[in-house]
Amino acid sequence: MFILENSKLLIQIDNCRGAKVIQFLDKATGKDWVWKPSDNKIQTGIDTLNLEAGFDDHWTGGFEEVFPNDAPTEVESFRLVDHGELWRRSWELIRSNEQEICFTLNCETYPMSVTKTFTLDTNSSELNIHYEIESRASKRLPFIFKLHPALSIEPGDEFQMPNAKMAPVAMEFSRLLGKNDSAIYKALPNDGYSREFTILSELDGGNCSIYNPRTNSKLTLNFPINILPHLWLFQSYGGFRNHYVSMVEPTNAGHYDLAYANENNLCGHLDPLEKINFDIKIKNEHVK
Prior knowledge:
Elements: E1 2-5, E2 9-13, E3 21-26, E4 31-32, E5 63-66, E6 73-75, E7 78-80, E8 92-96, E9 100-106, E10 112-119, E11 126-135, E12 141-143, E13 146-149, E14 158-160, E15 165-168, E16 195-201, E17 207-212, E18 217-222, E19 230-240, E20 243-251, H1 258-263, E21 268-270, E22 275-286
Antiparallel strand pairs: 1-2, 2-3, 3-4, 5-13, 6-7, 8-9, 9-10, 10-11, 11-22, 12-21, 14-17, 15-16, 16-19, 17-18, 18-22, 19-20
């Protein structure tokens, strides 16, 4: 386990599977923004899962990433697995100190690698995650990258999203859109039924927040829309495996199937041996 801590935040990062944030604690309010399953089976310290493991059956919450694909698919003769590799793999530690932790991972299924660096400065209320994605291929290849932060929500929490064009990710999952559109931007009580999954495109800005009235605080994500031009909003108020959780997911993906996204220019691409670098900032704010 690795810890980044200052006077405002306590952030824990699992050093094994996923190298993911498993606690994002606002010290002033005691609010932990990270969702964990109701049975609290966070399974920290668990090493790599095999490539056949399904994401939903092994989801333990936390702030992680989806890469190089989302749904299982085949692209350019590569067989890609459920939700990609980053969540299921043990990452290599590059360095760590009081303010910074850096990990890297080479994919098995695809000739690409990802390095991520967590930085929390003294007295800052913002965690910066710097990503470097590198191709090791001899030809241009598509990829999906998505931040996948499982958020601890409460009834009445408000989703503050940029102005955008909205569409369902999958109609069979939708239970609110078109029936109660006004509920899309507010967390509902757990009724064991409600759920929704929408994609926002043509964003007018690279930021989104979730506001918690109980603590009068909000968590804000800032991301580069030139690299991550879409924002997915996942909501389950008991309607998905009885989970009460939401995610706001900055991504380059306009569709969950990388093969389809590639054919329709709805994902990112890397040229041979190309690298891209970008930051996602996650900030805890107290609303005045």
